[in-house]
């Protein structure tokens, strides 16, 4: 089937350099808007979750990129239009409402959404509900996302957690901090898509890599790095982990549009790479579960969950799993990222995809509920409601 041109799990086209400049122009025109807010209901379980520490890319970025000079941004309307805590204003989230990270934290009883690490008010007691380190354009490999000029890769995110870790000692005292982090907190990691879309598959930057490295070698490198990153978190007392695999990146509206695919087609190469990575990710987590005493690494099968939504979207009440609700360009509004001049669909909760790259809040809710309460086909060895109570 169609050849892959690569996109971004994030946003900008790379095949068409000109779009990068368009987007840059666009972002600089847009006033920056405050990061995510409080106001999460806390009426769930008794003592609930301690902290939710969120690592990853634009799927879970809650505003860090607002504080970077980067081309990967979402703090412009109509992003956030359904985000209640901000009154419908953009926060930097790359979707219309809550991310999967927000929904999971809320359901598990967090007092607030995890606060973006780079937000000025990420200090003092505000940290206790959790911190979000995720960054649009970020990946496992340090070089991933260079096209955006700036983003926080996973190495840097883990360094930032080291800073937070010390702050927790100061806030709670060493002993209590250790207990809070190891027993009551969940570390979620949603990363990897950009390593393909904005690194290995990226036409201009990857030429060198792709000629010298087979997919197997590249994926091997990714998992080596991820092993180090997870181990470092463990060394800083993280014990409860959930790691998402890479979704069907060949099925996003951007890919379907630039490859001029039919509604029910996806780009083979991108999905194949995702699958290849996902198989090895599962083995890595099995290995870490045996090797690191007291830790639980939970595997979240995001690929199958999203694929199921795309394939059977009608059964879930969606009218499209192909077209971006907010976007422009081509058959599926899949070329130009969501912004003030985009066309916007009427029923935002009836689209699987909010923009050319990211799921809508309605899709995020379905995915999050499965991760929280689903069975071992989607989340193993335990679901997140169980992980919290361990
Ligand atoms: C941090 O600041 C933002 C913007 O002023 C605000 O919306 C948010 O509620 C604050 N968060 C916390 C936890 O104080
Ligand atoms: C990774 O990138 C950051 C900047 O984003 C840089 O400070 C750091 O030195 C890099 N690390 C490695 C191992 O190259
Ligand atoms: C955390 O930072 C300290 C320096 O402040 C360093 O010695 C330590 O190795 C870091 N820990 C990890 C796991 O990166
Ligand atoms: C999810 O975990 C809960 C425990 O919190 C358990 O009762 C339930 O059976 C699990 N769901 C599935 C489908 O395995």
Automatic annotation (TrEMBL):
Alphabetical UniProt keywords: Hydrolase, Lipid degradation, Lipid metabolism, Signal
Source organism superkingdom: Eukaryota
Signal peptide: 1-35
InterPro entries per record: GDSL, GDSL_Est/Lipase, SGNH_hydro_sf, SGNH_plant_lipase-like
UniProt xrefs under Pfam families: Lipase_GDSL
Keyword NADP in annotation: no
Family: Belongs to the 'GDSL' lipolytic enzyme family.
Matches recorded under PANTHER family: GDSL ESTERASE_LIPASE, GDSL LIPASE/ACYLHYDROLASE FAMILY PROTEIN (AFU_ORTHOLOGUE AFUA_4G14700)
Protein name: GDSL esterase/lipase At2g23540-like
Species name: Camelina sativa
């Amino acid at each position: 089937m169609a050849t892959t041109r690569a996109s971004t799990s994030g946003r900008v086209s790379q095949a068409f350099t000109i779009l990068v400049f368009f987007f840059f122009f666009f972002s600089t025109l847009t006033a920056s808007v405050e990061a995510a807010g409080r106001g999460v209901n806390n009426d769930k379980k008794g003592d609930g979750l301690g902290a939710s520490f969120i690592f990853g890319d634009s799927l879970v970025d809650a505003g860090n990129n607002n504080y970077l000079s980067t081309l990967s941004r979402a703090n412009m309307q109509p992003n956030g239009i359904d985000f209640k805590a901000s009154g419908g204003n953009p926060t930097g989230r790359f979707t219309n409402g809550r991310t999967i990270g927000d929904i999971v934290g809320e359901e598990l009883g967090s007092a607030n959404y995890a606060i973006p690490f780079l937000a000025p008010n990420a200090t003092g007691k505000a940290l206790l509900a959790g911190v979000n380190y995720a960054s649009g354009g970020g990946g496992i490999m340090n070089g991933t996302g260079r096209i955006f000029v700036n983003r926080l890769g996973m190495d840097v995110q883990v360094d930032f957690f080291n800073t937070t870790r010390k702050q927790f000692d100061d806030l709670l005292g060493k002993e209590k901090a250790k207990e809070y982090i190891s027993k009551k907190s969940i570390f979620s990691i949603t990363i990897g898509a950009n390593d393909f879309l904005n690194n290995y598959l990226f036409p201009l930057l990857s030429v060198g890599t792709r000629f010298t490295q087979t997919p197997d070698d590249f994926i091997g490198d990714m998992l080596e790095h991820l092993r180090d990153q997870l181990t470092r978190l463990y060394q800083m007392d993280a014990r409860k982990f959930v790691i998402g695999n890479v979704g069907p990146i060949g099925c996003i509206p951007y890919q379907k549009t630039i490859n001029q695919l039919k509604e029910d087609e996806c780009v083979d190469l991108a999905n194949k790479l995702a699958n290849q990575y996902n198989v090895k990710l599962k083995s890595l987590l099995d290995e870490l579960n045996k090797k690191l005493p007291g830790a639980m690494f939970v595997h979240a099968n995001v690929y199958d969950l999203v694929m199921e939504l795309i394939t059977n979207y009608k059964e879930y009440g969606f009218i499209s799993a192909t077209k971006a609700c907010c976007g422009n360009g081509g058959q599926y509004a899949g070329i130009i990222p969501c912004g003030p001049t985009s066309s916007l669909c009427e029923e935002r909760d009836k689209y699987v995809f909010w923009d050319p790259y990211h799921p809508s809040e309605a899709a995020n809710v379905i995915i999050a509920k499965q991760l929280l309460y689903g069975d071992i086909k989607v989340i193993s060895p335990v679901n997140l409601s169980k992980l919290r109570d361990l």
